[in-house]
Amino acid sequence: MQNLILDRPLVAFDLETTGVMIERDRIVELALVRVEPDGSRRTFRSLVNPEVPIPPGATAVHGISDDDVRDAPVLAALAGEIVAFCDGADLAGFNSVRFDAPFLENELRRVGCEVSFADRRHFDAFHIFCRMEPRTLVAAYKKYCGKELTDAHSALADVEATLEVLDAQIGQYDEVPSTSAELHTFCNPDEGRFVDRSRKFAWNDEGKAVFAFGKYKDMTIEQVKAENSGYLSWMLGKDFADDVVKILRDAIEGRFPTRS
Fold it and tell me: Where does 10-128 sit in CATH, by number?
């Protein structure tokens, strides 16, 4: 560490999980690096058997499958070592304030280890990134076009600036394609994965529609109807988009979407 001045140990950490639902999903890998004020460091890394199947969508993100964790320790066997590793240390991560820290706390409590990181100083590189490099059209116009957007939030000014930014991005990055078809694919990497426009349902590897959110995430619509048909009816009473409503009505009548 060349710039950060430490007055006590710092533990940077990252989790790979079965999903993003803190109350429901499980850890499949974690890594921690502890840096002491004198600059010395040690690491801890382990795969974790989540004791539940890893959804294909999660494996596609981090590359960890059920086979990889079959013989890995469960979290309960690692909890004591994790807590000891973090003892007396500040915390750091990337988007860890909102995700990794509460996720790890919840998982440790689930296995009987009462721990709280609320009293720790916590440094989040993602928050610094967002504050120092704002993800707004004004900031993008300045970065890519070298101009100040003086009439921001005027619809026409925003559209004109967006066109300039888009063209400048294509010119700046070799990875960004310049043809329309290739650029569409680049900007929509998940196209074809979801059944509906609002992304409430996704296709699984078998070509069946599964829930992409909520307590039945990764379960097929057909399975949910069989186990709790009232849930589909309950959803119909909520404010979902028309294509979601059609999927629900069809499912209640026994017609389920399949990927052609």
Answer: 3.30.420.10
